[in-house]
Amino acid sequence: xxxxxxxxxxxxxxxxxxxxxxxxxKKNYAEVAVKVVDCPDLTQDxxxxxxxxxxxxxxxxxxGGVPYLVxxxxxxxxxxxxxxxxxxxxxxxxxxGAGACSHEKxxxxxxxxxxxxxxxxxxPAINGNYLASVNPADNSCLLEKYREKHSDHDFGxxxxxxxxxxxxxxxxxxxxxxxxxxxxxxxxxxxxLKDHYGDKSVGMGGSFIIQEGKAKLHVMxxxxxxEHTHCFSHHGEGGHYHxxxxxxxxxxxxxxxxxxxxxxxxxxxxxxxxGRD
Length: 277
Hints:
- The protein is mainly β.
- It has one domain (about 5-265).
- About 15% of the residues lie in helices and about 40% in strands.
- Helix 1 packs across helix 4.
- It is globular, with a radius of gyration of 18 Å.
């Protein structure tokens, strides 16, 4: 892979972020509860992740970029999650987030939903990734566990990842019900943090559950993508999260943690502003 750039991020205390998010979310949801809690065991349902938590040497890793997809796809842009973990100075890291599958390995446009513990000197990688594609038989969503069809740990074009040691610890729990504003769940939190912290760059990652309601997802196949969320379900659907479609009944529960550092890997030399929201 090409050169990697890195920089420290502003890292507020969890209690400070709680107050900021609570004030911002109340402008967009009828019911809001934000607090610091012990991270639930993420190896259990409904998460089923390969690690217990989101804590320990947290990072944001932004790999590749939209210019490698639009206007002309670059199928030669293939990355390996174990190499990414080394590039961010955290071999054995747990990484979750959103990105694209490698066309070379999958053979079609497909969304990657990342939940993977990279290899370390003492243990192999544990791949809990999902891939979402369009079923050619009937154009429905096809959600599959990546390791059930592929033995590699590759992806293509781009990814936007939160990485950590995957340890238990304190995280921010966010519960909201009934959307009253126009922003989706993730956008509301991002804009709230931006409005409060201004020029101090804050990065945050985590996972959330849509406990009630439905959402619109799509399957597609330093110059950063500021917001990128992929979802999987236990009923066979997954993809890129846009917004919920049932604002009067929607209910979210999420667990999040700020990142200490940002790593930018293989930044495109020529860029544009397509797909940044």
